[in-house]
Specification:
This protein has 183 residues and is mainly beta. It is 8% helix and 43% strand. The protein folds into two domains: 60 residues, duf1285 like domain (duf1285 like fold), CATH 3.10.540.10; 98 residues. The C terminus is likely disordered.
């Protein structure tokens, strides 16, 4: 069954603040739910609500900044000698990501691409500080995640992407909310 598409009056500001109309959303329970259920597809960012067999995709009005923050990150080598990242997000979820998930957005925004979500989480100041011993540069514009004293692939080049790719200036152009077939 396809999801019902709606447009709640919710947006994310450049500083990461979540807004409902002109009011800041401050309730931690509501924010954590929104962040945990946030996804992104070709139509834009949406909060997925599930009601038994039924689903609703509430598309955000706009996203001017990255809506989720990684508050802790720790690189490690897996038993298979692959570089991995343990990440804790601002709403409490913990992720185990490949080292290649760490990227640079724009000129100086470190972020991790969250698998199956379609968008990255920006790193907090504390999370960035915890990477200081692992991040190296070649003196040019190339940055690397390096695991010293480790066997296997212990150096990984960070990818770059324009941050604009993950921002949404306008409300998505979706069909007006209607009951899905069979409702």
């Amino acid at each position: 069954m396809s999801a019902l598409k709606t447009r709640p009056d919710i947006r994310v500001e450049a500083n990461g603040a979540w807004m409902y109309r002109d009011q800041t959303i401050n309730n931690p329970g509501i924010l954590n739910y929104f962040k945990a259920e946030l996804r992104r597809d070709e139509d834009g960012y949406y909060i997925e609500n599930r009601f038994g067999e039924r689903r609703e995709h509430g598309y955000l009005e706009a996203v001017h900044g990255l809506p989720v923050q990684a508050v802790a990150i720790e690189p490690y080598m897996s038993p298979a000698q692959e570089m991995r990242l343990w990440v804790r997000l601002d709403y409490g979820a913990e992720l185990d990501l490949p080292g290649s998930a760490l990227l640079i957005l724009g000129e100086d925004c470190l972020a991790v691409m969250m698998e199956n979500r379609g968008f990255p989480a920006r790193l907090s100041g504390g999370a960035m500080a915890s990477l200081v011993t692992y991040l190296h540069t070649d003196g040019e514009e190339h940055y690397y995640l390096v695991m010293p004293h480790q066997k296997g692939r212990n150096k990984l080049a960070l990818s770059r992407a324009p941050i604009e790719r993950y921002l949404q200036k306008d409300a998505p152009d979706i069909q007006a909310a209607s009951a899905p077939p069979g409702a």
